[in-house]
Amino acid sequence: MNTSVFEQFFADCVGNWQSDRTYHYLTHKEIERSQTTFEVQPLNNEQKSKVLADNAYDKLDNLEQLPGFNLGFYTISEKGEEVRQNLNLMFVPKSEEGEILEGDYLRDRAYEEARPIISHFRFDSSTRELLMTTNYTRVVSVDSITLTNPKMRIRKILNYAKPLAGQPLENVLLVGFGVEQKT
Asked: Residue 101 and residue 64: Cα distance in Å, rounded?
């Protein structure tokens, strides 16, 4: 599996970032702006093992090769609402087809629900877009990060009402856009 672009994507993500975002709440026709500061640091193998254990995921022998990070962030909205969170996450590639790498995205704490969660990721090495899809209890979150250069990322977040089993994602509840710059 050729993961060099994937590995470079994550190497470029380490550090401090400043994000300006706009959220469109379609259920109640509200637009909200916020600013977020991120700190992204690599996980060591012991921390990666804990993320696997927290998710009851099979032990893996190649932890050194798998991207894993501690993500700390602080968000303040234009209304003055504040959110501070810290979580550990990692990516386990499972398949590769052409420029597309897919696999599992594990967190020790999910954004929408405070619990460990396994999601799906898809990485396109030609566009350097990481697409993460998480099935929560009531919503499905599709989060995109496109690394335009080592110091700028474009973020897009779509939250859908969780459809019935086998049905497509259709009912968009929230749309978020952001520009993230390394500081």
From this structure: 18
Which amino acid does the sequence have at 171?
A: N
Give me the amino acid identity at 13: C
Strand partners, 175: 24, 158
Q: Find, among 122, 125, 124, the residue nearest to 134 by Cα.
A: 122
pLDDT tens column, 115-148: 999 999 999 999 999 999 999 999 999 999 999 9
Per-residue confidence (pLDDT) for residue 110, from 0 to 100: 86
Q: Which domains does the chain have, with CATH numbers?
A: 4-182 (2.40.128.20)
Specify the 3-state DSSP secondary structure of 76.
strand
Distance CA 36, CA 78 (A): 11
Mean pLDDT of 156-168: 96
Residue 114 has pLDDT above 90, yes or no: no
The two tokens of residue 182 are 């390394």
* Whole-angstrom distance, CA of residue 23 vs CA of residue 42: 28
Nearest to 111 by CA among 141, 81, 91: 141
The amino acid sitting at 101 is L
Give the H/E segment covering residue 124. strand 117-124
CB atoms within 10 A of CB 69: 21
